[in-house]
Design goal:
heterodimer; A: Rossmann fold; Alpha-Beta Plaits; 6-stranded mixed sheet; 12 helices; 13 strands; B: mainly alpha; globular; binds adenosine-5'-diphosphate; binds magnesium ion
């Protein structure tokens, strides 16, 4: 893979194998992941629990050593502090010293980034205020909720005004309002030109946050690319929600499915969500009238990220949990 | 949200020795602060102060000319031991706590080297132990004064040497805590301390014409290994000499300090070697 000036992060065939237990049994947490992130771009690093997201991120930040492959962070090896100086990182579970107050945490972090006292004094209250923490300044972190800790985590990630933000599961464990706020914040940061690399196992509402995605499953990339290329936004496909008469359910259903290209996406009692070619819509409406069904909704179809995800990683949900990490971080 | 307070680019001072020093002192400061909240630390400090005060009562039982002597001996023996115990207990969890509570994962991705972090932890704990030693020494000086004695320069020098020993044990604790879990690292550090205090005895026994160390080849070999790999901590204990009224030549202090600090350097270097490559999962 050629290295470009614009690539601020590049993974080349990244792989990480852990050895666990007395016999050193191998666990392949990440296998052959290659990706690049360009300046100003936002990349969603997606996958179910235990798919290797956190492991990859720990490699990017030099917390752990890759077993194989190469990582370039601003063109440097991430073990160089100067490369990491340009990164703001939000850990999966943002644990800070719980005996410190938010200002003290940020002050400590500011010292590590080499910010002078005057800058820290100006910037810390400002950031804490922007993140809605100004009424918790005199409280130790031990009493903070997950949402508040997340805000402290985000505040410290922004302290050095970094070029790249690496957020591990920024939306998990938050209530709906918290999620919305963090999403809006990330969208703002994107608008400001920050590059974003964030992981998530929840896919709702993140489409608007990323230019590109990389979907992992069991440590392997199953889909990768720009969202516009990955998600079919097919004008030729439509979606219909049809309520069938209970009396003649099976026959009615058979009648609809006999139409060319019609597939059932979802079935709930006598309500069917169907996917069909747009030119079959007249045929469908005719059939609906004929079988005395009700057409509740009809819309143009746009594939969602979630569908892509389920389609690519469908076997995952089938065998459910398969790792301790899956249970822990759920 | 505009996260820039001004339009100018923030200046990050991360290069050069001054920046490294300020990162080390940030870590040290936080370590000191955390250790200073430790209940065990204050418990131990409180009990020791009570014991020092109690030694006044105890000395009442002694003969008149032995009273000061008893308080002096007691302090010289107990104060270093308490500091060592603190070093072992807090040193054993020094790194483990950071990993266990996941606080490390937020710190090490910052532009700080692992070596700086480790040295910061060491400096922070060493500063705490110095504070503890001084607090106990002051209390002891008060007790000596009550008994009509005084806190002489010789006693201060003796405690100074003990501080080198404390640093040495702390660095050993740092090394073991980079290597293993708290209980094991505590036991190993304790082992270094106990064997270190008696290596000279082992050495003497090997020189002797009788006894297992002289007669059993396996024990001889073990003795040789122990004497070689474990620092001789008796170097830092001059209580016996003080009691016997033997004057200690000034260059003894210089040599003992250099000896101790080389061991400290050795243990820190080993810790760095272990910690630098370690996966922090
Ligand atoms: N320290 C470790 N030792 C052994 N296996 C690990 C370790 N950390 C993670 N794993 C395994 O690696 C896989 C990926 O974990 P992780 O990167 O945490 O996934 P994600 O962040 O996507 O939920 C999981 O199967 C997990 O059990
Ligand atoms: Mg994770």
């Amino acid at each position: 893979m050629a290295e470009h000036q614009d690539d601020i992060l590049a993974l080349e065939h990244l792989g990480k194998t852990f050895r666990v237990g007395f016999w050193g049994k191998k666990v392949q947490a990440v296998r052959d992941v290659s990706l690049t992130l360009k300046r100003g771009e936002s990349l969603g690093y997606l996958g179910p629990n235990g798919s290797g997201k956190t492991t990859s991120i720990k490699c990017i930040l030099s917390l752990i050593q890759p077993t194989v492959g190469k990582i370039r962070l601003f063109g440097e090896d991430p073990s160089n502090a100067s490369a990491r100086a340009r990164v703001g990182y939000l850990p999966e579970a943002p644990y800070f010293y719980d005996y410190l107050k938010p200002t003290e945490v940020l002050d400590y972090v500011g010292k590590l980034y080499g910010l002078d006292a005057a800058t820290r004094k100006k910037r810390i209250p400002y950031l804490l205020d922007r993140l809605g923490l100004s009424n918790a300044l005199d409280r130790e972190l031990r009493g903070f909720s997950k949402g508040m800790l997340q805000r402290v985590g985000i505040a410290q990630s922004l302290l050095s005004d970094p070029d790249l933000l690496i957020y591990d599961e920024p939306l998990s464990g938050l209530d709906p309002i918290g999620r919305k706020e963090v999403r809006e914040l990330m969208a703002d940061l994107r608008r400001e030109g920050k590059s974003l690399f964030f992981s998530s196992h929840v896919l709702t509402d993140i489409e608007t946050l990323c230019d590109a995605v990389c979907i992992l499953d069991r440590g392997e990339v199953v889909a990768q690319g720009r969202l516009s290329d990955l998600l079919r936004m097919d004008k030729l496909e439509s979606e219909a929600l049809v309520e069938l008469p209970i009396a003649d359910l099976e026959a009615a259903k058979a009648r609809l499915l006999a139409l060319p290209g019609v597939e059932v996406m979802e079935e709930l009692a006598n309500v069917l969500r169907l996917r069909l070619p747009t030119d079959v819509v007249p045929g469908l409406t005719a059939a609906v009238v004929e079988i005395h069904a009700t057409l509740r909704e009809l819309s143009q179809r746009r594939e969602s990220l979630e569908e892509l995800f389920v389609q690519k990683a469908v076997h995952v949900s089938a065998d459910g949990q398969r790792s301790p990490a899956a249970g822990k971080s759920a | 949200m505009n996260i820039q307070t001004t339009n100018e680019k923030l200046i990050l001072r991360i290069d050069g020795p001054m920046a490294a020093l300020s990162r080390i002192s940030a870590v040290a400061g936080n370590t000191l602060r955390e250790a200073g909240r430790n209940k065990l630390f204050f418990g131990l400090l409180g009990v020791t102060i009570l014991m020092l005060i109690f030694s006044i009562l105890l000395s009442d039982l002694a003969l008149t000319d032995q009273k000061i002597r008893l308080v002096t001996d007691f302090g010289l023996a107990v104060i270093p031991l308490v500091c060592i115990a603190t070093a072992v207990l807090l040193g054993a969890v020094l790194l483990y706590k950071e990993i266990d509570r996941k606080t490390l994962y937020a710190i090490l991705p910052k532009p700080i080297r692992r070596s700086e972090f480790l040295i910061g932890k060491f400096v922070g704990l060493s500063a705490l132990l110095l504070g503890q030693l001084i607090a106990l020494a002051l209390c002891w000086a008060g007790v000596l004064h009550l008994r009509g004695g005084s806190f002489s320069l010789a006693l201060a020098q003796a405690l100074g040497l003990n501080y080198i020993e404390i640093l040495l044990v702390t660095s050993a604790a740092l090394f073991f805590s980079a290597l293993s879990r708290p209980v094991l690292s505590g036991v190993l550090t304790m082992g270094v301390f106990l064997i270190g205090r008696i290596t000279y005895v082992i050495n003497d026994l090997m020189q002797a014409t009788k006894g297992v160390f002289a007669e059993v080849p396996a024990m001889r070999a073990l003795g040789r290994v122990l004497v070689a790999v474990v620092p001789d901590l008796s170097t830092f204990n001059i209580a016996d000499e003080l009691q016997a009224g033997i004057a200690i030549p000034p260059d003894y202090f210089v040599h003992a300090t250099l000896y101790g600090l080389s061991w400290v350097g050795f243990f820190i270097a080993l810790s760095l070697l272990v910690f630098e490559r370690r996966d922090l999962v």
